[in-house]
Amino acid sequence: MSEVAPGLITVFGGSGFVGSQVVQDLARRGWRIRVAVRRPDRAFKLQTSGAVGQIQAVRCDANRPEDVAAALQGADAAVNLIGILYEQGRRTFDALHVGVSRTIAEACAAAGVARLVQMSAIGASPDSASDYARSKAAAEMAVREAKPDAVIIRPSVVFGAGDDFLNRFAAMATMAPALPLIGFGRTRFQPVYVGDVAEAIARAVELREAAGRTFELGGPAVMTFEAVLKLVLRETRRSNGLIPLPFFAARMIGSMAQLTAFVGIPPVLTRDQVVLLETDNVVADGAEGLAELGVEPTGIEAIAPSYLWRYRRGGQFSERPADTAATVQA
């Protein structure tokens, strides 16, 4: 496979959980990186991930075409990682996923940027019952219309220190006597390590053969939602119960919980997230993925203990309680 030589790359949304890992990986590969974010002060810490002057944080409102064009000036490649998990005011799925993705793709095409990598998600489909998944599919179509050779990256749920996946349930376990087994815990996931996602994105930028292709990223193991919760309880040394919760009940709870977004408090769960849970989140049969990008997947069991220990009552070296988590029957 032939590779593109490192030059200047603009990373939109590079200060987030996945973005910071992508920036570090690109820096190691020798790229000069322009991190385009709404709040540059939140990206200054990334400058220590590379050599002096290698990483620059710039202010960019990706809703404004002029800001996007300025952020792409002189760039050889771009990565779009901008996305939200729930809607809040004007920060809607349509605006942040579809509108911003179209703006970035059109600006890349106009500026002659050689490579664009677009972050999407497994489950993206125009036929999905989830607003989130439909918006991701619409974003993919908008990007490909403007820049047909763009690379689409679709990860399953991403885990790692600072994630909003295992950390969310671990935090809940410190406050609630039992965790909700939404949909009776049967939904399947293929959790993928954030470091592997970052490496895959970096390789997608550099490999010429990746142009125009879609890659679905999943870890080495498929796990049910119940297995994920049991992993969290085991690593946090807690014996909380698991309460089976039908999807219809979870949707009602999510509808009420998402009201906190109106007062600026991130919701623990939204109705749309419950709808997403009604469909398995695994790599499709025959889809290209980490292997085609030359990335060896990292198992969740190898990483989760390195950051879930902070939720243990006695700290990192506490003993596991004698009783283990049991499922509470409804």
UniProtKB/TrEMBL annotation:
<keyword id="KW-0560">Oxidoreductase</keyword>
<dbReference type="InterPro" id="IPR001509">
    <property type="entry name" value="Epimerase_deHydtase"/>
</dbReference>
<dbReference type="InterPro" id="IPR036291">
    <property type="entry name" value="NAD(P)-bd_dom_sf"/>
</dbReference>
<dbReference type="GO" id="GO:0044877">
    <property type="term" value="F:protein-containing complex binding"/>
</dbReference>
<dbReference type="InterPro" id="IPR051207">
    <property type="entry name" value="ComplexI_NDUFA9_subunit"/>
</dbReference>
<protein>
    <submittedName>
        <fullName>NADH dehydrogenase</fullName>
        <ecNumber>1.6.99.3</ecNumber>
    </submittedName>
</protein>
<dbReference type="Pfam" id="PF01370">
    <property type="entry name" value="Epimerase"/>
</dbReference>
<feature type="domain" description="NAD-dependent epimerase/dehydratase">
    <location>
        <begin position="9"/>
        <end position="218"/>
    </location>
</feature>
<dbReference type="GO" id="GO:0016491">
    <property type="term" value="F:oxidoreductase activity"/>
</dbReference>
